[in-house]
Amino acid sequence: TGLRIDVVTIFPDYLAPLELSLAGKARDKGLIDIRVHDLRQWAHDRHHTVDDTPYGGGAGMVMKPEPWGEAFDALLDHEGDDRPTVVFTTPSGQPFTQAVARELAGKERIVFACGRYEGIDQRVIDEVATRAEVREISLGDYVLNGGEVAALAITEAVVRLVPGFMGNASSLVEESHEDGLLEYPVFTKPSSWRGLEVPPVLLSGDHAAIAAWRRDQAVRRTAERRPDLVSAPSLFDDLEIRPAL
Ligand code: ADE
């Protein structure tokens, strides 16, 4: 069946590469169809106005409800079994993780709504929630100029999880964050470079020893760099190592 992704933005050029390169391979196989839409096509005044001053006062501008309402009217006319998922990219959303990417990769239809300015009129989110599954997602705890880069990053993480998109499925399970650990360090030829040697165990041909070394490196690296992951429940309960406190 495949995954259909629509992105609504006032900067469609910013996301144009999605329609081309990234979608290219998957689109040819019929796996993914990505379309980018300019929100201003749904703003009907002379200047295609999409923002206005906030009720209650304060700095910045708020995105008006009417263009968004029309955008969703046009894009949510689905003929699948699932309700479409609408993702609002916002620094106030749920943090984006590999687990969220996995959930989204299982959908048939995702519409990204990229907010700019100080955000979108809350009634837009409340109204669309009556006819779609709404997710508010943050790329991380920092502020971007708008949701476009977040939509791009989320799309890239999701698309590569769609079955058939990547050649080999085992390369997916072994990577960072799929098992809750960071990746072990990797090496390639030459075995000696500028006086630096590849760890001998990797040249030993002993597959069990190599797997044990890699696991140990991944655990150490995670404890060192991401104590937040180590202290998350259960994962490290049966391991010897604890983050330095
Ligand atoms: N828009 C602005 N900052 C953002 C962030 N951190 N995540 C998602 N959308 C955003």
From TrEMBL:
Top-level lineage group: Bacteria
EC number: 2.1.1.228
Keyword Cell membrane on entry: no
Presence of keyword Magnesium: no
Family according to the record: Belongs to the RNA methyltransferase TrmD family.
Known role: Specifically methylates guanosine-37 in various tRNAs.
Protein name per its UniProtKB record: tRNA (guanine-N(1)-)-methyltransferase
Native organism: Nocardioides conyzicola
Positions spanned in the full protein: 3 to 247 of 391
